[in-house]
Design a protein that fits this description.
Belongs to the ABC transporter superfamily. ABCG family. Eye pigment precursor importer (TC 3.A.1.204) subfamily. Helix content is about 50%, strand content about 10%. It is α/β, with parallel strands linked by helices.
Length: about 1300
Amino acid sequence: MVDSERKPILGISKQNSFYSHSNGGFDDDVDDPELGSKGGGLEKSVAEDLDPVTLTWKDVNVYAMPKKGCCNRGQKLESPKQILSNVSGMIKPGKLMAVMGASGAGKSTMLNVLTFRNRGSLIIQGDIRINGVVVDKTKIANISAYVQQDDLFIGSLTVREHLTFRALLRMDKRKSREQRLQKVEDVIYELGLKKCADTVIGIPGRLRGISGGEMKRLSFASDLLTNPPLMFCDEATSGLDSFMAYSVIQSLKALVQKGRTIICTIHQPPSEVFELFDEVFLLAEGRVAFSGPIPDALEFFKSNGHPSPVNYNPADHFILTLAIVPGKEKDCKAKVKDICDVYEASQPYLQMKEEIKTGSAQVSQSFVENTLNNTSRYGASLLQQVKSVFWRSWITSIRDPLIVRIKFVQTIFFSVILGLIYLKTDDEYSQEDIMNINGAIFVIITNLSFTNIFSVLNVFPLEIPIFLREYGSGLYGVGVYYLSKTLVEIPFLILIPVIFMSILYWMSGLVHDANSFLTATGIAVLIGNTAASFGYLVSAAVPSVTAALAIAPALMIPFLLFGGFFLNNGSTPDYLIWLKYLSWFSYGNEMLVVNQWEDVKNINCTSSTQCIPDGNSVIKNLSFDKDNFYLDLVDYKLFDAESLGCFNSVKRFTMNGSFTNKGYSPEVITTGGGPKDNKIHPEDPELGRQRQESSTDHLDPVTLTWKDVNVYSIPKKGCCNRGNAVPSKHILKNVSGMIKPGKLTAFMGSSGAGKSTLMNVLTFRNSGDLKLDGEIRVNGVKVNKPKISNISAYVQQDDLFVGTMTVREQLTFRALLRMDKSKSREERLQKVEEIIQELGLKKCADTMIGTPGKTKGISGGEMKRLSFASELLTNPPLMFCDEATSGLDSFMAHNVIQSLKSLVKQGRTILCTIHQPSSDVFELFDEVFLLAEGRVAFSGSVNDAMNFFKSNGHTCPINYNPADHFVITLAIEPGREEQCREEVNKICDNFEASSAYKEIKSKTDELANHPEEHLKQMMETLTDSSRYEASIFQQVKSVFWRSWVTNIRDPMVVRIKFAQTIFFALVLGLVYLKTSDSYDQQDIMNINGVIFIIITNLSFTHVFGVLNVFPLEVPVFMREYGTGLYNVAVYYLSKTLVEIPFLIIIPIIFMSILYWMSGLIRDADAFLVATGISILVSNAAASFGYVISTAVPSTTAGLAIAPALMIPFLLFGGFFLNSGSTPDYLVWLKYISWFFYGNEILVVNQWEDVTQISCTTSSSCVSNGALVISSLNFDKDNFYLDIGLLFALIAAFRIIAFLILLFRAKRSH
């Protein structure tokens, strides 16, 4: 982007630029050229007249009350902590005010006080007025709009649909529908959203939609529908790049020019953004440091001995001056106190307070009555609310592919698969068919239950943030929202069971009768709706989808166990019978079993005894009663009312602020005035000093050069582009450069300039789809990937560590694996201590690194310095750093670059890509390398860059950060691409023709042709083959040690695994409790049920227990493998060996409790065999879990895919389907099912020696254990074969998992 010479912030004038705002308007926007069209007044907008609003606040004091609790009884409570101290201020109509301050200054607290939000734990004193009238929460809400930092929308709606929804519900009841729709069009035009009006808003990572700038403007548009004269904006530019940030603040600028009053908190605005504000309100330590126009602020700070340096962003200067620097707290607080004292005693501040006290604006009676005193909570009638919310919910459902496509495809797929498994074409029934049909019935209930519960679990959690915000804004009531959301799901809750039953019913051999089919389908619909109702209850009660997915299966297990399939209906313990009466599985199973078997008069028998003769006997054996059929139907409607009641109670709980979630909770006011993570973390005060005492190894100086580098994208070939020539793209164009030792160089350029590509070229990374030309040399010697890796370190943008390790442990691990083989262990550990000292990590050396959102650890700045430390262990003379300050606040960013500055003083060569550095950070760099459109725009010192741009007609304004100036000047403005590219090419041409660039190329050639001999020899001694510095034994030891430390420090591994094991063993023991040694006919079903539950529980526990073993560490593994720390086999072996103790101990604990409680045969040998088999089953399941874990990209994907992959193995385990009834075309699934082998062994182990099973009837009895085994088509002669095959499965699954991990590792490198 280009512009003519720009003047300082005082009276700045810009032409031919998207930053121009002459005539009170602004030029073409990146998203919509009509945004603020020329002429400046937005004449096409027909906005209503605005009552001018002056907001004042006087002597505001805020105190945080100490928390009371049971633990501090008898102790003296701390006194309240003062957050804001006598804060007064005023903002008038037509003014855009920036509220700024260092972290912890009180910005967020002040905004919350002014908007009457999140005040629960605070004591607030002071006076807040609108035009001289004292206001409360209701009045401020009536007259203002509050645009929060996070933009919350339903992503499947278009921009126009979203605004229409808001207009129908939020605008004044007196407005007609036509007036509301017209207002929508006005606001779309006014905020420059015309181009994207019919574009879906989008869902990040799922559905492509509007840009970040458009989304932020849509937030403003949503609140502008009510035409508020006063607006509050919280961090309006958060997460936006410089152009989008400018576009958003420019939109606010246009709004204030129409008479609105806007106050906006903002953090580290770029120079061009900050100059758009009319006034600045500075807070420091909870006090007012300044309030007024920006030129006056500059003059005030100058008069107090803090002038803004030349070419310095005033916003950076104000924040830096008022910040409390760790290690210098006393001096900084004294300086801040002096500034605040001087300002509070100044004439402008005293005059403002007097004006607040005496000078109130004229207030019209209609303004007071119709605006301030409007007490109506809702802007729409109840019917309109239902219509609008239902319409939006329906649109959301039909546009979401997860609802429309996947639901139906999944239903058809599973019904066909289950139909093939249970396929039966004749009308005759045999004894085996009893087990199969009953299994099919229970699978139907289970499938419909899980499908419908999991399909609605995200209904409320995903929209809870939006619901709470819209409910709080008075768009609709809770009942309206709940009713609309549940009504929308009804068509799916009817269609899916109908489709499912229409396919599966006739394939699986259920009784071939139309009436029975219709009855079964109706029951299936009821089951689906009841399960969904239970899902609504869970969905309304939990804070997130993740929590819902975790809790729902656990809550369903009791209902499933008491469904009459795993436990005979007549064997339910009295103390747990209430669970049976709450189980829709029980009612559904009873109805479907009665519906199936009631009219079956004959069941074939191939033997003379132990046969069930007819359907009524089947019903009786299950302890079901056909007279309960209609009673069961009535019980199905209980859950709907329960879920509604739960949603209402949860709503009240959440609105009171007692139940919050990090993803959507309102910002909690802390004693620091902001979120804890935003505070400046204590760092090592010695950081940045030159450490003479550090005994770093000798460094050979390194000069990196690259000459005539050209990069082309390779067109992708495929069947779809036959006959179409896809031209390659020229990404880098004849790029040459040089970086010398002792220099810290910044790589900069606007988006798409080629920074990342050049960094990848220089480090020989990620070049698979690129064609490269040119040469890269170190000290005049050509290098390749192995050589550049041996001599350099690459610190990537994202800091990847194992969070349970301490800083010292992380560095020790790296030292043992990465440092030169010739170094002894003592030398390596000594190097670790030196690096800890050198990078200022001594204070946190024994602190865990931490896992974001899970385990508290070191700060962001410390983590970034740990990334440098990890690479410095090999003492590299050359370092590449990718976006070293990304995600850090101003202090931490300065801290990190200061660390790099100290490293180059030791003789290192460091180049660093950086985006939008603050003024104080940018001045630390020695040189800058600017790219534009893939060409070199400049290379050299910062001062030379300033002079070069000035000579080309682009003088940096006095109060501008040079970094902002360079990037802005070289940016390509949307809508003016051709003109901008012409000017950018001119700048690049001028630099390439300059003596400075010719000198760089000349020195590059000279170094290549005549390198210094000792430096040349140093480079030529580097080998290409040394990949691993440590021996295989050392690799295994180190990786195993880290994996073990990770496991024992993770409460999810140590505590929850064992607690969960003991808990489920006790619960299942109580469910199947049997104290006698004799067995009856009901015990056959119960014992076989508990055996299969044992296998299922251990399988799911261990599959899910290892799903996160690899996905959570794959990024770390890929990076460390690529760096040459260890090989794939070492990593895989270490990770799996660490899990072995848990795979032995957990089954032992589980069986030691459950075996003796559940009535399994009381014999020590049988117990030991059963325990041994449970260990084998656990290891087989874990091995299968490793296959999934190594194959999936994330734990979430693993959790989604694992159950579906396990279902076939479970169905062929000999419990849901008789072992002798397996279809020939699916028999292979039985032979790779550990469920089958485990079930057969445990059944044989249980029943082989049981010679007597009592019988209370004269027929249909199984008299001994051998008959139980044969009825299941199991064979006791297969006992040892099954054990051998379990070992084979363990080995096969683990080999497959290793090969998958090896393939992924090789492919990524």
